[in-house]
Amino acid sequence: MQPSVDQLASQFSVTGIHFTEGNGGLVKAIIETDRCEGEIYLHGAHITHFQPRGKSPVLWMSEKSAFAEGKAIRGGVPICFPWFGPKASDPDAPGHGYARIRTWDLLAAENNDDGDVSLTLGIAIDDFELKYTATFGRSLGMSLRVTLSDQASEPASFEEALHTYLAVEDIHQVVVEGLESAGYIDKVDGMKQKTSNGRIDKVQWRMRPRLPQHHVDLHPT
């Protein structure tokens, strides 16, 4: 069950953050500071908007997204957990797991010393405890911590992703480096394993890429 807006407002009184009912009546936090604006829903701990001051929105949202209990929000930053894509042992299980279709608890909201604001949300799924911190400033920071519950009787495996959808004005100006020689699974071409370039929807595996110091302005002004 989602907490009320009044409950959140009384418990978390933070400059630059206020709570309201968003699409579908789902509760969200709205962030408005001199550095940025943004929003995050308790449903799925889903960030649906981030925009630095003077810049264009960073995240893409689907106009066809459902905003309802038990449904996944489309676009923004969905949290995939405890599996990515379809569950191998149960094709009827929800795609990308339960984290993005359940209501998270807001654990903390605070103004940081550097001028950013942070919200921390948590949820328990199966034998796992998740803690997710989103930091809104001149850039958007996200940190997901997964721990195995003390009640777990044996080790457990999981898959996770912050499946971010970026709003891109010109795809020809976007560069991804460091994966040129890696094999991948091409979902557009029947899950074939290959290496190539062009239009693809791929799942990379066995990679420890060196992250380059490379920046592309997705929204040139």
Automatic annotation (TrEMBL):
Protein known as: Aldose 1-epimerase family protein
Top-level taxon: Bacteria
UniProt-listed Gene3D superfamilies: 2.70.98.10
Species whose genome carries this gene: Rhodopirellula maiorica SM1
SUPFAM superfamilies given in the database record: Galactose mutarotase-like
Lineage: Bacteria, Pseudomonadati, Planctomycetota, Planctomycetia, Pirellulales
Pfam families for this protein: Aldose_epim
Gene Ontology molecular function: any one: carbohydrate binding
UniProt-listed GO biological process terms: carbohydrate metabolic process
Signal sequence range: none
